[in-house]
Structure formats: structure tokens, C-alpha cells
Design a protein that fits this description.
The chain contains no helices and eleven strands. The protein is mainly beta. Strands 2, 4, 5, 6, 9, 10 and 11 form a seven-stranded mixed sheet that branches. It has a four-stranded antiparallel sheet with strand order 1-3-8-7, with no helix packed on it. A hairpin with a 4-residue loop joins strand 7 and strand 8.
Length: about 120
């Protein structure tokens, strides 16, 4: 599975962005997918995850109520809709796929495939 994240950019606080994670490979539709982010000088942190069915989602407390993760398996794409953005949301955002489906949400080490990041910058 190869993943390609896109949709990042510069936005003012309170604005919105939608990130996309496009995948190649037949196993993507049966993989759980997560979004992570890494701000300068900080460790990579979990943001949100969507199960392979698309019916179950999980969010970090810091984004709950503002971000929505979804997927379209017919298009092999996962989305992260980000609303009410804050300067502290500034980071490089990564998508990752977990094909094992052993736990929910997947543990960090269960994400076997990672995409390159896309930069999100929120100005105050």
C-alpha cells in the first residue's frame, strides 16, 4: 500500500481545510486508517482514525468536535475535514494504514504503511 497525503496549506484561525489520503493497492479498503501530526520540536501524535468499514471513527481529545475523518473505499481515499482550526493545529499531517485489524483503534506499531506528510499552517 502506498499513501499520498494532500490538501495542506495556510489558513487563518477559525478556518477549514480538508486533507486527502489517496492510496494504491487492493488491501487499502480492508485497512484501518489513521491521521497523525507532528509539530516542530514535538513528537508525532495521533489525530484520528477510521475503521476499514468507514462506520467507526476515533479522535484525539484535542480535535474532537472540530475534525471529521471519513473514507471512500471506491476511490481508495480517506479524508480529514478540519474545521475551527487553531494555531496549535499547525503541523505536518501524515496518514497511515493498519492492515491487521487486531485492535481498535490500532496501536501505533500496527500502522504498517505511512504516507509523506502535508503541511498545515494556521495563522493567528
Amino acid at each position: 500500500v502506498q499513501l499520498q497525503a494532500s490538501g495542506g496549506g495556510l489558513v487563518q484561525a477559525g478556518g477549514s481545510l480538508r486533507l486527502s489520503c489517496a492510496a494504491s493497492g487492493r488491501t487499502f479498503s480492508s485497512a484501518d486508517v489513521g491521521w497523525f501530526r507532528q509539530a516542530p520540536g514535538k513528537e508525532r501524535e495521533f489525530v484520528a482514525a477510521v475503521a476499514w468499514t468507514g462506520t467507526t471513527t476515533y479522535y484525539a481529545d484535542s480535535v474532537k468536535g472540530r475534525f471529521t475523518v471519513s473514507r471512500d473505499n471506491a476511490k481508495n481515499t480517506v479524508y480529514l475535514q478540519m474545521n475551527s482550526l487553531k494555531p496549535e493545529d499547525t503541523a505536518v499531517y501524515y496518514c497511515a494504514a493498519s492492515p491487521y485489524r487486531r485492535s481498535w483503534p490500532p496501536k501505533r506499531y500496527e500502522y504498517a504503511y505511512w504516507g509523506q506528510g502535508t503541511q498545515v499552517t494556521v495563522s493567528s
